[in-house]
């Protein structure tokens, strides 16, 4: 148990030092753990997230549910003056078969306070391999990953007037 002083005032807090959450689907035998850092662990591997110009590992131990009750987990991290907002949920690959392979959907939005232009980056890497998915985006359209690829990097140039940017939609399948 930890003291609430380690959490930001006015934001959610937890007495648990290393909390985890689970994403799944009713009657599905698969599930995904959201680790204490905010990574995704399926039992087959772990998907790690890195943000900022120096590719700092994401470390956010507290998550909330979207609208306080929907099974979409969300959390934010700040790096280099940018706010990276993560949202994630799980769903079966076939909506008519709840026991089909579970797919994790992840969305990351980057918010830039309109004070000045900033540069940011986000990467998603699997823990079991050092292979990086091809695809670097610089000041262009959102970068998108597809099932079967192992990681993604998106480099961002975010101008002053742009306050929100959808960075990445990444789908990982546990097979």
Would you write up a description of this structure?
The structure is a single chain. With 175 residues, the chain is an all-beta fold. Helices cover 0% and strands 46% of the residues. It has no helices and 13 strands. The protein has strands at residues 21-24, 31-34, 40-41, 46-51, 56-57, 64-66, 70-79, 82-92, 102-111, 118-126, 143-144, 152-158, 164-173. The strands form two sheets. Strands 1, 2, 3, 4, 5, 10 and 12 form a seven-stranded antiparallel beta sheet that branches. A six-stranded mixed beta sheet has the order 6-7-8-9-13-11, with no helix packed on it.
Helical fraction equals under 10%
Main sheet properties: 7 strands, antiparallel
What is the strand tally? 13
Give the CA-based shape.
globular
Strand content: over 45%
Question: If you compute it from the alpha carbons, what radius of gyration comes out, rounded to the nearest whole angstrom?
Answer: 16 Å
Q: Structural class from helices and strands?
A: mainly beta
The end-to-end distance, rounded to whole angstroms, is: 35 Å
Average pLDDT value?
74
Number of helices: 0
Topology, pairings included?
Blueprint (H helix, E strand, L loop, with lengths): L20 E4 L6 E4 L5 E2 L4 E6 L4 E2 L6 E3 L3 E10 L2 E11 L9 E10 L6 E9 L16 E2 L7 E7 L5 E10 L2
Parallel strand pairs: 11-13
Antiparallel strand pairs: 1-2, 2-3, 3-4, 4-5, 4-10, 6-7, 7-8, 8-9, 9-13, 10-12
Summarize the structure in short.
The chain is an all-beta fold. The protein has strands spanning 21-24, 31-34, 40-41, 46-51, 56-57, 64-66, 70-79, 82-92, 102-111, 118-126, 143-144, 152-158, 164-173.
